[in-house]
Amino acid sequence: MTFSPAPGVRGVKICGLTEEAGFDACVTHGADWVGFVFFERSPRYVTPAQARALSARHVGGPARVGLFVYPDDDTLARALDIVPLDVLQIYASFERATEVHARFGVPVWLSQPVSTGADLPTTRRAGVERLLIEPKPPTTATRPGGNAQQLDWSLMQGWAPPFPWMLAGGLNPDNVVEAVIVTGAPAVDVSSGVESAPGIKSPRAIADFIHKARSVTFSA
């Protein structure tokens, strides 16, 4: 099943939910997706049981996205047994993403770190529903994403996306309007940019980000 906003409405994903106030703000202000990070090195790490408890606070609302870093099948199966997830977002190869979709039958999003225009995919691959375009991490990073780096948005100019896609990396309420104007991104993903402390979301910043992200219209 595909989870997408209505045509012409910019999608918003709030990632790295760890606590009740942040989750509730996503529901109240109409986020399209909420993300749970199942990667222990992240300050936003939650267990599947913790994600289940947060998700159970509201029936319906944002689609639930589980973020995994190079996961094996057992890791994915254990998580799905505990918490219902609408989307699996993974750091892996296109080939692995296809395997995951075939194995679990859940929509798969592939995180695609880029540093130059040559890194942007130009052909469609089976099994991947959406790409998340974000900056490649520094060589000293301990995780592949969520490092609050801002991508060079000009890389997207002239790119013909072969997939539905989402812009991530260094976004916040102060720069999201410029980001979507420059890139034309149909959806945006934010984590640390709406936090009051690592892993702790600010309900006010969530509301501000969602409002500003949707304030610029685009053609779907």
From TrEMBL:
Species, as recorded: Acetobacter orleanensis
Protein name (Swiss-Prot/TrEMBL): N-(5'-phosphoribosyl)anthranilate isomerase
Enzyme class at the top of the EC tree: isomerase
A Pfam family recorded for this sequence: PRAI
HAMAP family: PRAI
Domain of life assignment: Bacteria
Alphabetically ordered keywords of this record: Amino-acid biosynthesis, Aromatic amino acid biosynthesis, Isomerase, Tryptophan biosynthesis
Designated gene of the protein: trpF
EC number: 5.3.1.24
Catalytic activity: N-(5-phospho-beta-D-ribosyl)anthranilate = 1-(2-carboxyphenylamino)-1-deoxy-D-ribulose 5-phosphate
InterPro entries in alphabetical order: Aldolase_TIM, PRAI_dom, RibuloseP-bd_barrel, TrpF_fam
Metabolic or biological pathway, per its Swiss-Prot or TrEMBL entry: Amino-acid biosynthesis; L-tryptophan biosynthesis; L-tryptophan from chorismate: step 3/5
UniProt KW Isomerase keyword: yes
Membrane in keyword set: no
Family: Belongs to the TrpF family.
Transmembrane spans: none
MF-aspect GO terms: phosphoribosylanthranilate isomerase activity
Domain N-(5'phosphoribosyl) anthranilate isomerase (PRAI): 12-211
GO biological process, one term: L-tryptophan biosynthetic process
